[in-house]
Structure to design on (737 residues):
């Protein structure tokens, strides 16, 4: 007879594991990736592969150097790579994808302790580093023309800032506009987001309050609200970045506040700032505020005598 | 009313239609002097003594305790030290049975005419909560504050276990009789029989039986774990919130297990103390899952063999349910008063614990609205102030957080360790 395993209860567990959650996220990004290949052409494939591959490699090397457990099996590095690719323009050089992966995995994620410990979203931070550090990256091609050299188009938000003619709502919803790989097609992102919500991987609290507050504030300010939520990285940010586990609040209330903050900051940057796009900055800023939001939105436990808050 | 959180578990009530079978009297029984919450008893017998069925063999002067009786007739062959599954050390009485099952002359219906004599009889019956926790029943039925509602816990929310369900199906008259008896003796106005929705037959039966009695309500609880937890069942059947550090009685409520109620009723009729109990035997190493009625002190090994358990494949044995039951380290350990189930498992996930990804699943399921992920973090750095702020003392160890954790973190276990760090007043 075997020796009996003695362990504390519970003795049963469910089958959802970290790597299966990450796989679901990858699945949910597939529609957006597919549409991206259609809109921006074949270069999307190697560019995405470089991002995913270098993220996994950096994760492996980093863990190895730090003498920690190998964590590439949890698939989170692959998710980061995929999200980074979604944030790059199709013309981005491969070396830049590698630099972005380095920033995301090594600097933002592993130096802070790896999965679950980073305070900022790796892909968003990498996008911002590349955007600010290499301004030439803001070189957008016309959709469906696959001409990576000559034609420089602008994203709808840049067009709007310049007061030029805008694409139709339908084109924007379907993604036939300039922009980064994964952000243009709201439909594909919506499908992915709803899939994740249906599988209970993400909560819709943050995406809804993000998109909702951006809509309302733009409307009040006299901007075209529908246009504002369809343009730029709002859907990508709301469904895939503002729902990141490690860098957003853990409670429902906190998630609502987080989304609200993202919406407001995005609106402020777009409406008053000189940058055409504010989604990345808004998410990064809210990432930094997350510990404070968590502190202020703590659940009141069932039967607790009072809500306990940190003094000072 | 707020909807409390919880998890949907596979019910796996494979034995719900298995009528209770009597387990034959074993050749030898070993009866521990500590089987439930409360002080351990001192043996009243010594090696060589003859004992009879129903004879008291252990007792103590400590009020928070219940006496121990023998369920067999035979000769005491040893009185030795024993470590229980909870880790406590007590004496254990070993009795070699003679197969006669001669009933002791001590066994006779108790004389009960008021609350005091009733509570005395309850203690003498050896009764403790049969749902698993084993709180001494005579203490529970004697609260300091006035009670207006008696809740009968028929939730049986753990997977596999059907011991309480079989009580409801096989002895419904004892249940209703017991409810009326306790109400009358303690002067409690209302009783609520709270049963989880996955037992429609029992609910229907009781509704029929209680339809002319408007002091007994039948409550259907949602099939969400952990409905049977005291604070949860109180809230879901009466709306009363039991505050931190308070007892149910402070809210005018007592919760008592349904099998305990039926047992008390029978004891008042025939005087046979708690020496036998129904136990669900199941798990994927068990060939023939059953409900057996076994004498307390019967070795688990014999019951497992009786149910055609694959002893070579079994790698884990659980006394109780898979969510809150105790690991049994040794198959020779005996059935105790609180053994409501025996689960023999041959597959157990021993995958490694990885980093918390802060997915919030633990927060989503915690019925007490705690944040186990934050408690885990505060515990690792031994931040006692933070643990207090996170109200870790409210954790009732239902295990839901560990169950859902994708990183295999033992959150419920951490909560218990964290509780121990907080100095008690």
């Amino acid at each position: 007879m075997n020796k009996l395993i003695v362990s504390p209860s519970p003795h049963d567990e469910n089958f959802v594991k970290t790597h299966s959650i990450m796989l679901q996220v990858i699945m949910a990004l597939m529609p957006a990736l597919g549409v991206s290949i259609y809109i921006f052409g074949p270069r999307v494939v190697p560019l995405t592969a470089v991002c995913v591959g270098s993220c996994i490699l950096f994760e492996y090397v980093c863990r190895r150097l730090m003498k920690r457990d190998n964590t590439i099996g949890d698939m989170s590095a692959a998710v980061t790579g995929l999200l980074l690719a979604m944030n790059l323009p199709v013309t981005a050089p491969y070396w830049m994808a590698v630099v972005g992966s380095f920033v995301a995995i090594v600097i933002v994620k592993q130096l802070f302790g790896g999965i679950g410990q980073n305070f900022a979203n790796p892909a968003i931070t990498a996008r911002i580093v590349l955007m600010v550090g290499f301004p030439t990256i803001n070189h957008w091609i016309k959709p469906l023309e696959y001409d990576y050299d000559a034609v420089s188009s602008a994203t709808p938000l840049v067009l709007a800032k310049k007061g030029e003619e805008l694409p139709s709502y339908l084109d924007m919803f379907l993604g036939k506009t300039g922009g980064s790989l994964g952000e243009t097609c709201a439909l594909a992102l919506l499908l992915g987001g709803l899939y994740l919500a249906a599988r209970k991987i993400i909560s819709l609290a943050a995406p809804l309050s993000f998109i909702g507050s951006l809509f309302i504030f733009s409307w009040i300010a006299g901007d075209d609200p529908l246009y504002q939520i369809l343009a730029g990285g709002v859907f990508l940010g709301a469904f895939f970045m503002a729902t990141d586990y490690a860098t957003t609040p853990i409670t429902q209330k906190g998630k609502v506040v987080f989304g609200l903050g993202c919406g407001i900051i995005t609106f402020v940057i777009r409406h008053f700032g000189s940058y055409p796009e504010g989604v990345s900055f808004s998410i990064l800023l809210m990432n930094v505020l997350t510990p404070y939001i968590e502190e202020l939105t703590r659940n009141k436990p069932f039967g607790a005598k009072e809500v306990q808050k940190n003094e000072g | 009313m707020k909807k409390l959180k919880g998890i949907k578990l596979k019910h796996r009530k494979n034995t719900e239609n298995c009528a209770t079978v009597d387990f034959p009297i074993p050749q030898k029984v070993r009866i521990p002097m500590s089987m439930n919450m409360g002080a351990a008893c001192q043996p009243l017998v010594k090696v060589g003594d003859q004992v009879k069925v129903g004879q008291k063999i252990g007792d103590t002067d400590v009020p928070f305790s219940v006496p121990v009786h023998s369920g067999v007739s035979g000769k005491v062959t040893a009185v030795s030290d024993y470590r229980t599954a909870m880790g406590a050390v007590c004496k254990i009485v070993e009795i070699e049975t003679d197969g006669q099952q001669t009933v002791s002359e001590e066994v006779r219906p108790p004389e009960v005419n008021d609350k005091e004599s009733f509570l005395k009889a309850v203690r003498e019956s050896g009764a403790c909560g049969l749902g698993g926790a084993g709180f001494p029943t005579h203490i529970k039925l004697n609260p300091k504050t006035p009670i207006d509602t008696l809740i009968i816990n028929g939730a049986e929310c753990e997977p596999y276990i059907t011991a309480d369900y079989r009580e409801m199906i096989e002895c419904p008259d004892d249940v209703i009789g017991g409810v009326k008896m306790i109400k009358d003796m303690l002067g409690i106005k209302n009783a609520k029989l709270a049963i989880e929705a996955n037992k429609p037959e029992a609910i229907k039966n009781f509704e029929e039986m209680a339809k002319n009695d408007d002091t007994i309500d039948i409550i259907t609880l949602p099939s969400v774990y952990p409905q049977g937890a005291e604070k949860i069942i109180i809230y879901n059947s009466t709306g009363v919130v039991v505050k931190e550090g308070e007892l149910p009685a402070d809210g005018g409520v007592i919760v008592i297990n349904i099998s305990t109620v039926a047992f008390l009723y029978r004891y008042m009729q025939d005087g046979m103390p708690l020496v036998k109990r129904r136990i669900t035997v199941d798990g994927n190493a068990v060939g023939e899952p059953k409900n057996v009625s076994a004498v307390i002190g019967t070795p688990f090994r014999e019951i497992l063999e009786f149910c055609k358990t694959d002893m070579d494949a079994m790698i884990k044995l659980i006394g109780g349910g898979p969510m809150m039951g105790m690991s049994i380290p040794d198959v020779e350990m005996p059935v105790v008063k609180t053994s409501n189930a025996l689960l023999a498992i041959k597959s157990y996930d021993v995958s490694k614990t990885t980093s918390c990804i802060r997915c919030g699943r633990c927060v989503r399921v915690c019925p007490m609205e705690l944040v186990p992920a934050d408690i885990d973090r505060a515990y690792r750095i031994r931040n006692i102030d933070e643990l207090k702020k996170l109200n870790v003392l409210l954790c009732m160890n239902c295990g839901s957080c560990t169950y859902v954790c994708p990183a295999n973190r033992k959150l419920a276990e951490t909560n218990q360790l964290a509780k121990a760090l907080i100095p008690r007043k």
Notes: The interface with chain B takes residues 1-2, 4-14, 16-18, 20-21, 69, 71, 74, 76, 113-117, 203, 245-246, 250-251, 294, 298-305, 308-310 of chain A (CB under 8 Å). Confidence is low (pLDDT under 50) at residues 307-312 of chain A.
